[in-house]
Amino acid sequence: MSNNLQYSRDLEENLRHSRDSSPDRETPRNKTKRIKVGNDREAQILQFHEKVSDLLICTVCLANPNTEIYQCHYGHLMCIGCFYRLLADARIKDEQARCPKCRVDMSRNSCVRNLVVELLLSELLSDCIYCNATMSRNRLESHTKECKGRPVNCTYIKVGCTWTGPSHSSHQHADECDFQHRPARDIIAHINKSDRKHDDQIGRFRSVTSFMSHAKLFFTDIVLSPHRTDDFIPQLFYESSKFNLFGHYWLVRGRVQGDEHNFQRTLSLKVVLKGKSSMEVEFCFTRDAYSTVDIIPEVSRHSYTAEDSESDYVEIKLVQPLDLNNLLAEKSIKFRLYMAQL
Fold first, then answer.
1. Rama region for 94: left / alpha / beta (φ>0; ψ in -120 to 50; rest)
2. For the chain, which residues score pLDDT lower than 70?
3. Which of 33, 196, 298, 312 is the most buried (most CB within 10 A)?
4. Listed residue (58, 59, 60, 50) closest to 118, CA to CA
């Protein structure tokens, strides 16, 4: 009996010793090792995100797109801005658009969106440019709206203060801003400038509303097709088919200013009367019913005579000027034309 009791005690002691010396037991040394392994794992994840981010770049601007992503026939990626830019450049140069990576032919029909890459990029980690906080790209937009490091204007910007700084410093600046103690005579010039800008906007709005109230107001949807001049160096121009308004035939002609080396391009249109007649007309171009490109409407007037059957060119002002590439990338450009006979 005594031998069995001693054997049981020895067995318990051996088990206790074995359990204390087990590598699975979280001793301080093993805890440090686990933390180190965890840090290595985090570094590996960050490294993986960086490698994937370096692979999923636009072949033109070499950046990770935040917008729609298109791919050529062989899978090379392009952000929507660069994609339309390549198609617009080819339209201006009268060439076939090609992928800058593999030189395969490209068109609106041959290139498709890559939704998988768009979703993958939205889940990759990225740093906030204001506070360097790391988060997934799909959270960056909402974060930057509330980030304490985002740039904001002074509270007194409307009376002339030009200070811009991080959001967390705005309250301190507002308390110390000199413009809160400026006399009225020092800020009246800035207020007058703001009023003039506001008056211009009101004048444009009144001009459009007055134009839309004409008794003889008609509209037609026009389709502008690209053509080339017969010059030694052919120039791109657009022209619509003829349409009938006020008992006469008309057409719209357009020109593009700015070559493939210019990022800022303009599109100008003029209304041409086919035939000899005299009348005074107001006209205004807007986007057509299915377009996504916003246009700032401008009312123009021209007095047509037998000797002067073409109006002056009117620049089409876009809310987003780079959207002109979207229009040039299409096979044709569509607008809605309003005309009123005075």
1. left
2. 1-39, 259-263
3. 298
4. 58
